[in-house]
Amino acid sequence: MTHEAGGQEISPEQPIAWRAVRPETPIRSADSQTAGRLADLLASDQEDIFHGIVVRLDEGGRDVFIPADDVTLMTPSYLEVSYTLEQLDSLPDHTEERQAEVGWLGRFRR
């Protein structure tokens, strides 16, 4: 299966930039488990800064925040993070209030 980016077909394993990531992309843990789906991507378009992602975990449906430094790979078919499934499950809930406190805008939920 190939994906289109700017009119060009790219492999589902091809690394992509944060601006090309789509909502609901599967999230893969460091131990190669599907952990959830991308709920939001926090970034500043004007400053071209990627802050991190909000993951909706499959187990329990909670949203958790993963800092940009811990997102190890972005492809059209999945994003990979440096946390194991167990570590992801132990993260605190991500809240819109905390996001507003730091002033980060989500690309998918504005």
What report would you give on this structure?
The protein is mainly β and 110 residues long. It has a single domain (15-106), classed as Photosynthetic Reaction Center, subunit H, domain 2 (Photosynthetic Reaction Center, Chain H, domain 2). The protein is built from two helices and nine strands, in the order ββββββββααβ. The chain has helices at 85-90, 96-102, and strands spanning 3-5, 8-10, 26-28, 34-44, 49-57, 63-67, 71-74, 79-81, 105-106. The strands form two sheets. Strands 3, 4, 5, 6, 7, 8 and 9 form a seven-stranded mixed β-sheet that branches. The chain has a two-stranded antiparallel ribbon with strand order 1-2. A hairpin with a 5-residue loop joins β3 and β4. The chain is globular, with a radius of gyration of 14 Å.
Briefly say what this structure is.
This protein has 110 residues and is mainly beta. The chain has 2 helices and 9 strands, in the order ββββββββααβ.
Structural class: mainly beta
Portion in beta strands: 35-45%
| Main beta-sheet annotation | 7 strands, mixed
Q: Report the order of strands and helices.
A: EEEEEEEEHHE
Estimated helix fraction:
10-25%
Output the CATH homologous superfamily.
Photosynthetic Reaction Center, subunit H, domain 2
The number of helical segments is: 2
